[in-house]
Amino acid sequence: MNLRQIGEFGLIRRIQKKFPARSSSIFLGLGDDAAAILPSPQKILLLTTDSLVEEVHFDLSFSTFFQVGYKAMAVNISDIAAMGGTPRFYLISLGLTDQTPQEIDRLYRGIQKGGKEAGAALIGGNTAHSKKTFFVSLTLLGEAPKKEMVTRGGGRPGDALYVTGSVGDAAAGLEILQKGGRAFQPLIRRYQAPPLRWREGRLLAERRIASAMIDLSDGLSSDLSHIMEQSGVGAELDLNALPLSTSLKRYALQTGNDPLKYALNGGGDYELLFSVPRKKVKVLDRLIQSGAVAARRIGALVHKKRGFTGRDPGGRIRKIEPGGYDHFRRN
Amino acid sequence: MNLRQIGEFGLIRRIQKKFPARSSSIFLGLGDDAAAILPSPQKILLLTTDSLVEEVHFDLSFSTFFQVGYKAMAVNISDIAAMGGTPRFYLISLGLTDQTPQEIDRLYRGIQKGGKEAGAALIGGNTAHSKKTFFVSLTLLGEAPKKEMVTRGGGRPGDALYVTGSVGDAAAGLEILQKGGRAFQPLIRRYQAPPLRWREGRLLAERRIASAMIDLSDGLSSDLSHIMEQSGVGAELDLNALPLSTSLKRYALQTGNDPLKYALNGGGDYELLFSVPRKKVKVLDRLIQSGAVAARRIGALVHKKRGFTGRDPGGRIRKIEPGGYDHFRRN
């Protein structure tokens, strides 16, 4: 059985069976001209769309269909997390080349797993034929109380800078796969399946801890520059404090590379980078100590005129150039 | 100047300048991790996503970038219209291959024109590099009062069946372009720029005239079969009553084809097909006579066991097989 035999509508029916709409806020799920939901009163609705394109964002010799689906969901969850929102509903827009129904099932199961972990429900989608390039484009809706939304623009000089989890792992994982390697599985897994940090994002928003927040998609230096630009500030990183995983340190040692290169410029970590006003630092540090949030202080926002610098392990201050991934510049 | 020079963030800044967020219900437009809106209280939110893929849904030798953009918006507006909703907000997800910034500007201007005509505002998006296939995927949000939403499933035996505008033109227009023709411009224009019927859809919903509604994307016979399936009914079309444009009749005469072939099976018209309970027929006919809605009665819904038939111009009843466009079966 292939897609030509079951057809587009056969595919929609298969999906409907796998994704029964359960939430009471979903008036109408898959199968009509549009989905219909009843948003929570008094809350703002957060919306993001992000796509994964074959040969650009993923390679099916590096990731399974399940992993591609999971990651497509994870990168969207990461955007909602960075606003302090709770993921709620999503729509899937697929461009299929010659995938089998089994492969598409696996893709959907990956998307569904990510959605389920974050409490988001599938409400609609579109499946198109694409001649040469397979793509998965998701639109995710989240909600947050109006006053708790966190943007990139709320950082102020003097705010401490924190990041969740560890940085640089995903870029190293991709490099290993591109070289045909299989060692350093934790790094490879970080590339294939990004962490979902929406609980952390929600907590930081709810407790009004984060003054500005962004998710790390392009790389720490590049994403921090967006906070700097939109908050009108500079930043000083404590390069000694960047959270590097043991695997990344071992991998860098083995390849003779500087692990900071991955940590500063490597994309795809999907951790949360956020600034914290001084008076909130104690509250956050307590949450970190209690294990509620895994985050580390990595520097501070400073006055704009001081630009973007890093204090290296030897104590020297050096200028940092945002060097993350830009789709068009680097391809 | 090309995309590699201005980069992804340069592109985002260009778009931000062209699309300043103006609505008071938009908390946060382009340029953060997610957009934030405040939905209207007491209304349901309608959501649809539809994409246009190069070489499948459009051919740049048949349509300009502006027309591709306009059509990408039109097909999404059509979905919201078919639910009886008012278009409000949209997100754009692009997969770009080697388009110039000027071409992308034209694409955005086409999207913007469609959005403006329907009162919808751009709130977010994503721009990705795509190796081989250029695609435009839009997610459109609309609103409707809870009790006015029209689905595909509300039709009952005895309801009259109506369609807006004319049918078959877009398929004939595409056929002309594929043969390299330039005559019959009205048909070509119908393929390049579908009509926006959201005002009609809204009126039919507000006055509770339509019991079921769908937009004609795949073709009349195919789209009607969705109403039949979801309403649990059959249908009898009066084939003599199908609204055929003068251009289509002349084109069919010239090529020796049956114009009903285009009208029944041709996709891409983006008209509204809807059923009307008997007691509402008079109200609708008055609206049609006053010019408020351009629609024509083309048959009726019947009991399911009578299936899908058409009364041809000679008065004979013949069985109709849904024969519209299915992405995977026909490619």
Task: Characterise this structure.
- The structure is a homodimer of 331-residue chains.
- Chain A has eleven helices and 13 strands.
- In chain A, 37% of the residues lie in helices and 25% in strands.
- Chain A is α+β, with helices and mostly antiparallel strands.
- In chain A, helix 3 links the parallel strand 4 and strand 5.
- The relative contact order of chain A is 0.15.
- In chain A, helix 2 runs parallel beside helix 3, helix 2 packs parallel to helix 6 and helix 4 packs across helix 5.
- The first copy, chain A, has a seven-stranded mixed β-sheet, with helices on both faces.
- At the A-B interface, helix 1, strand 2, strand 3, helix 2 and strand 4 of A face helix 1, strand 2, strand 3, helix 2 and strand 4 of B.
- Strand 2 of chain A pairs antiparallel with strand 3 of chain B, so a sheet runs across the interface.
Question: What's a quick, concise take on this entry?
Answer:
2 copies of one chain form a homodimer. By secondary structure, chain A is an alpha+beta fold.
Number of strands of chain A: 13
- Total number of helices of chain A: 11
Helical fraction of chain A: 25-40%
Please give the most extensive interface between any two protein chains, plus how many residues each contributes: A-B, 75 and 75 residues
Q: For the record, give the distance between the C-alpha atoms at the N and C termini of chain A, rounded to a whole number.
A: 37 Å
Query: What is the ordering of alpha helices and beta strands of chain A?
Result: HEEEHEHEEEHHHEHEHHEHEEEH
Query: Helix/strand-derived class of chain A?
Result: alpha+beta
Q: List segments of chain A where confidence is low: pLDDT < 50 over at least 5 consecutive residues.
A: 325-331
